[in-house]
Amino acid sequence: MEVRISPFFGCITIVATFCAFLSGKTAQAERFELGAPSSEADAVVGCLYPMTGRSATYGRDSIAGIKIALNDLKAEAEAGLSVPKLRVIADDPRSKASYAVRLAQDFIANDHVRFFCGIVSSGVAHAVSDLALREKIIMVGTDHASSRLSIEAAHKYYFRVTNDSWTSMAAGARYLRDLQEKTGWTKLAFIGPDYDYGHVSWTDLQLALSELGVEYETVAALWPKLYEPDYSIYIGALQNAKPDIVVTALWGGDFIAFIKQAATTRFFETIRLANFDTGANYDVMMALGDQPYPGLILSARHHNNWPETGRNKRFVAQFHEMTGRYPTYAAEGAYTGIMAIARAMEKAGADNDNNNEALIRAFEGLQLALPEDPPGFASYIDPDTHQIVQAQAVGTVVHNENFPPSKLMVGNWAIYDAEDLKPSKEIVLRRRKAALGGSEALPPPTP
Amino acid sequence: MKNKKTSIIKSLITGATAIALAAGIATGASAAENGKFRVGIVTFLSGPAAGPFGVPSANAAKVLVEELNKGNLPAPYDKLGINGAEIEAVIIDEAGGATKQVEEYRNLVQRQKVDAVIGYVSSGDCLAVAPVAEELKTFTVAYDCGTSRLFAENSDAKYMFRTGLDASVDNIGAVRYLAATRPDVTRLSGIQQNYSWGQDSWNDFTAAAAKLLPEADVVEEQFPKIYQGQYGAEISALSVKRPEIVHSSFWGGDMEAFVLQANARGLLEDATGLLTCGEASFGTYKDQAPNGMIIGARGPFGAFAPDNELNNWFEGVYSAAYDKDPVYPATKMAQAILGLKYAAENAGVGDKEIPSAEQLSAAMKGATFESVSGTVEMARASGHQAMQGITYGEYHYEDGKPSIKNAVSFSGACVTPPEGVSAAEWIEQGFPGATCN
Q1: What residues of A are in the B interface, CB distance below 8 Å?
Q2: Over the stretch A239-269, which tens digit does the pLDDT of each residue have?
Q3: How does DSSP assign B2-26, residue by residue?
């Protein structure tokens, strides 16, 4: 059994638990316990992150991000500031909604959590969000991105502090609009994982393009399953459709696998591949090797090399010092989640004791100066959708060896203002009305 | 072995208690009776302002009086004591408020029979004491207080002088420093203690910025109460406005707490702190303040004092006595004492004679004298107010040592309103007549 010790507020334990999985196999997962001991904690936060499989990097980096947040809070306390003492528990839902709900229920029953946080998979997040509503637990999403969670499925206890699919696709649509003016592209294809996040991303992109008045032809929309090992038939289908641009919502290992498999064909000779939500993640940069595939258009929810602010440089340096590597965007998302909880508790003040209403009011409109914020802007939580409002940078791949072992990073940035990337009130209303009418999502506009 | 002279000063002293610094002081005896020059020294010996201001000031007074009585100063101050008369310094605590300080002042003059008074960090105390100095016809030197109202409200002052600078100079100088080093800055913010010092400082800074940095906007301002001590809400409010500059006239423990907390909360990762009184804690920030933080010393004092014979000597004796370099309050106290010595020795009286208050005032009015900070011109307020330049620079802490980098100095004529013109008017008019190097 592995036990690691990293002291935060004097206490951390990692308990190796042996969970009987539904299949009957025994799987080992790590339960992390960070921050203040339960006897001293002002609040307990229960987080769910993948620690195994293709998306384990996200969980591993999220835990590091949480540790950085707890260290920062500890430093603030030592400097004389009154900050809440948080106890953070993290466990691995293994991308299974039912198992995630069970873990979350255990968080409530056994650990007396006041907050849920994290969750990479939008499918899992939907299930836990439903539980949060039933149990009146404030949920602070830090990674999953389906915009349905903050629009159609929004509720008072759910908040998200990282970019959602709408934000990324709104930025992407603007990039494509500007690109069209330069290159005249007309044919668009989409490929995304066959679950909520993928489908919502495609809908969001179409709605955003429509709002901007971009004219184009959709030549393909393809739906491989999550964690698909072989994309060859999809790559072939895309090549046959002859798009100018392929936008993808594949993420993590799936996106890397798709790129590597596409690179064995003539895909990149004629098609520009864009990934506006997750494509610029550091694990992708590392996987690209030392030669950028031509035409890639990428963004992500946090970049190690943008913005070049003191706050971002500090965060990246803290992560590197702690782990010996550079962070994926999940780290800054998890960091943000913990800081948001701490700041909301501070803002609520004495009113927050066992008073979710005061905390919810504190979260609504909460402003946070974050590593990913460009100069002159601070992220804030939209009081209506409970979705954080953030700027986004989209770019292309350039040589940059400042973040080894990667030899490439994204550069040639196009920056999009946060306010421009919010869904309009009209869109939010229409989508919510459509959901009330029984539709899972607002149908995309008809070309 | 270091002579640790701070212990007696650091102890809590009630206003009624005085420390006499001379051999054989006979309390109640007049100077004329014992032939010594008796000077009252007033600064904070207790309370929040004692550590950063009062103790260094009192220490400076103590070491300077001792060395003057030995005749150890360089020329032109190498004459023993003051005009050959041994100095007796009576150091009292400034704590307690303006009403109490008026009582203490009267006590110094009427019972302690001092020949002159040097003192006052608090602008409120300066304003309260100034008319009493005129009433009691006592030569009085304000060494640190910065209020612009001192001579505006006492325009016909005869006995009241100030060898420190008007606070408007701090803030005009701060803006000039930004204009010289950060001309492209667009997002300014400030945090000030919510009383006249903070409000006046912010008004001068923002007014000057409007003229000299026209592209800059004030994105946030915070006014916590004095001695609040914890600034989490204010730091968060400043942080989310993403300023490039955070100006503060905070001083003492408030200033140190703010720097520590703002640094911990990340405000100073992207925003540059600009502390008009920042040099007072030069030796204590260490790595708790970010490199590049802009600090001032309210004039050419402390770490910004020039490389001249007088200052080198003063730094040497002060460091030898207290095992630390003098910060700006110490330099300013030394300047006031040297100003008094200059006036006494240029008052046209015989050797060892103690000039009258009228003679001291006549000699001081409009004088130009050499000091640890360079040349001091009593060139404003009808010759009662010193005019000097001001320097700002960046705090850096490397290899276990603090240092100043990128210092820029501005002449007195660049940052001081002309005679008879208020700072607000001068700024509003666009600094007419300013001569900047």
Answers
A1: 72, 75-76, 78-83, 309-311, 313-314, 343, 346, 367-369, 373, 375-378, 380
A2: 999 999 999 999 999 999 999 999 999 999 9
A3: ----HHHHHS---TT--EEESTT--
